[in-house]
Amino acid sequence: MRKIRIDLTKTHDVIGAYKSIDFSQIRKDYQDPGTKYAFDVLDGKYITGYYMKLACFRHLRDLQRQDTKDFPYHYSIDEVKAILNFAAQCPEVKTLKPVKLMPFQEFSLVQLIGWRSEGGDKRFARAIISEARHQGKTYLMAIIIIYSFLIESLGQSSQDYLVTSKNFKQTSKILSYVKTMLRLILNREPWKSLGKEDGINLKSLATQSDMVVMSEHDNKLRAITWDSGQYDGFHFKTAIGDEFADPAISDVDKISKITSGQIDVDNKQFIQISTAYPDSTVPFHRDEKHIIESMEKDWKRDGDTYLCLIWAIDNISETEKPEMWIKANPLLDMPEKHDKMLRDLKTEKDADSLAGNLFAFQNKSLNIWLQASIDSYLSLKNVEESITPKFDMHNREVYIGFDYSQFSDNTAFGFVFPYFDRKGQPKFFLYQHSFIPWNHSGSIENKERQDGIDYRTLEKMGFCTITEHKDGIINTDQVYQWLTKFVFQYQLKVLYFGYDEAGSYQTANLKDALLANYPAWNIENIKQWPSNLAKPTKYLQDMFTTHKVTRLDDEVMEKALLNATTGLSPFGISVEKNRATLKIDVVDALIDAFYKGMYHFDEYSEFNSDLAKFSRMDEQEQLKKGIANGAIDPEFLDDI
Q1: Domains of the chain, with CATH numbers?
Q2: Burial code of 336-363, b = ≥16 C-beta within 10 A, e = fewer?
Q3: How far apart are CA 593 and CA 496, in angstroms?
Q4: Cis peptide before 190 (omega within 30 of 0)
């Protein structure tokens, strides 16, 4: 196949890319329901959102590149037929009868089961499936786990299977659904005979046991709650996590216990299902973003073993367009359900709107991620759109803000780099580095759980430093050494250093050391009064709203930006947080940097006078400037 470079990260024009490629041979060779759905979506037969168009485009592109050196996967029609034939026999637990699957459900099943690696294992070792509530996710996942338990276990013993959710109530609900479906399946041939051969006790499926056992092969399907966290020692062939976007499920250690236990397990798969939640900083949504980007970079081929299927509206404005709700609620395509489901959704929207809780409807029924509340300082959309893949910080002018930690808070530097983009527009690049104390939490592991941030991984990426103090408190010497090394490494020209002393002797010590060694930095203690901070606080907010700031994909900064809420005073807005574990230290540090940085591009600011600009130049730059102005005779250079 001729290589075609498709990059959708900027244009997001999936349909344009689809129409630019000849898929006629694929359309001819593949008539299965999954591939037909992909073509139907891209041909406009169904109303779907951007993410589903992207997933369907990925499927067709992968069919073109399968079984090549750079893409050692293939689409098995035999596996597709096997899972769809099995699904056609699975009863829905309310009606006790099999139901005809919708095309979008068939697409999900064949993506999970049909794609295979060279050795025949499932290609997608991990998967995310996200859609609005009441779209049959539990029914679909019950089919998958039972298929794996009954069919994929043939000839194997001592295999582990998992269903899990946040707490006992939610985990028991999905297990009960699985048990009921399994009991109904095993009441009919040929499954009845297979169940007896495997030693599955039908009576046990009607009990409150948290396990289904194949006594003849010692295969076990377990229900384990996230709250218990007892995933150690198991090697799950198939694991399904329900409502895994819940903010309570943000401990990366627990997730890694599931996935690390799957290492060296044949045909493994870990599937996370959920709708959107108010807290957009959870691992579930971060994974969504990363896989979406990898699909957009069609030419790069990252993330080939991670599946991401998201049914969601594209824009918050579609909240007022019921005809677009089908993007998140694909069951609306079922004629017999359409009218009643649409009425119910409208009723729910009206009720939430009257209660001032519209974002709950947008989260759960339209499957869109938002800022946590109407009081949020910044919107998720603006924060995510500010990401840039790289920025060269060498030899730049910079404004620095500093916020020292109190108790369990982090200590943060905020760096504001003024620059002009390729179009000559003035912008600011934002960078941060945080120092992480753990004394108040007892350990760095507990600190990570409380904050919902994997600090140890982010430390390796350079975004933070876990304190080296033996008692887990901030080490001021470490903070000072890091800053001076950072400034020297990038040869930064520090225009301003703003800090909040707030009675902290540690901050006073840092300030004294900087004054002694860097007197030209324009170091200032910023009084943290609303009258002082309202303007830079509003300015930073406006810079995000007008897309005049950029930043790296840094989780520490992102979490702080999204955690910040807006307070009001007679002087303007301020930033606040709702609870201690919501970190906003980086935002405070950036506001301190913008205390003077906000004036950088003002023609008459103290930083833009001819004298100020000249004083910031190095010796060579000053000489060149003097020659250009006629103030220095070029022959003078020869004399020196």
Answers
A1: 14-310 (3.40.50.300), 316-364 (no CATH), 380-607 (3.30.420.240), 609-640 (no CATH)
A2: eeeeebbeebeeebeebeeeeebbbbbb
A3: 7
A4: yes
The answer, yes or no, to whether residue 285 has pLDDT greater than 70, is yes
Residue 622 pLDDT > 80, yes or no?
A: no
Is residue 618 very low, low, confident or very high in pLDDT (cuts 50, 70, 90)? low
Contact status, residue 498 vs residue 504, Cβ threshold 8 Å: no
pTM of the predicted protein model: 0.81
Q: For the chain, percent helix, then strand, then coil, each to nearest 5?
A: 45, 15, 40
Residue 498 tokens read as 């703003």
Higher pLDDT, 105 or 375: 105
Angle made by CA atoms 470, 473, 478, in degrees to the nearest 5: 80
> 236: helix, coil or strand?
strand
Q: What's the CA dihedral at 150, 153, 159, 163 to 10 degrees? A: -40
Task: Tell how strand 572-576 and strand 426-436 pair up.
Answer: unpaired
Q: Give all strands (DSSP E) within 121-243, no chain letters.
A: 126-130, 160-164, 211-214, 219-223, 236-242
Q: Which residues pair with 575 in a beta bridge?
A: 566
Q: What is the rounded distance in angstroms from the CA atom of residue 47 to the CA atom of residue 367?
A: 15
Angle at 575 between CA 571 and CA 579, to 5 degrees: 140
Q: Which residues pair with 428 in a beta bridge?
A: 418, 549
Rg, the chain, Cα only: 29
Q: Are 589 and 432 in contact (CB under 8 A)?
A: yes
Q: Which residues contact 636 (CB under 8 A, 6 or more apart)?
A: none
pLDDT at 636 over 50: no
- 73-87 mean pLDDT: 97
